[in-house]
Amino acid sequence: MKIPAAFQPYVEVFQSIDSQAQLWSASGQFLGCLSSKGDHTHSIINPDGDYGSPYSEISIHNPQGRYGGEKGEYSPFNPTCKNPPVVFYRRQPLFILSTNLNLYSNGLKVIDPYLVLALYEALSNLIHDSAPQSSSKFIRLGLTLEQLQAKLKPLSGSACHRPLRSQPQLIPL
């Protein structure tokens, strides 16, 4: 799959945090790593792992679970979820995954979970089809949290950006 040029700023951010960022629910449940490695144990795109399986109770892919589907209490796919999962990078919140168009985000960028999953699927193909990671033009590592937030700033997310009504109780990494 070719990634459209309009999504290049997102691609750069997701490559920078690949396998380093973690997804946490507002309930304090670890929900996996943002990793383009489909066989990574903790990857949210690993269909055989706890965090990518449609059958796991701790997966955002489980349509019947608390963390997945359009009715999940903490699901990024629930358009009315008030406490969707947050992506942490270097122990700091980076952005929120949600389809809720009326979410109060406390200043964090809100990104559509379908976009994140599609880009990580595409990145998994790019990375595995390219040269070794150390020489790949697709891999950028070592950006600071501030640099990543600056890259996200001009991008439009899937929701309005107003302060959260209630701050999620997240467990620090």
Please summarize what this structure is.
The protein is α+β, with helices and mostly antiparallel strands and 173 residues long.
Uncertain residue ranges: 128-140, 157-173
Arrangement of strands in the largest sheet: 2-1-3-4-5
Outline the biggest β-sheet: 5 strands, mixed
Broad structural category: alpha+beta
Number of helices: 3
Sheet-strand content, in percent, reads 5-15%
Instruction: Tell me the total number of β-strands.
Output: 5
Kindly state the percentage of residues in helix: 10-25%
Order of helices and strands: HEEEEEHH
User: How far apart are the first and last residues' alpha carbons, in Å?
Assistant: 33 Å
Mean pLDDT over the full residue set: 81
Radius of gyration (Å): 15 Å
| Overall geometry | globular
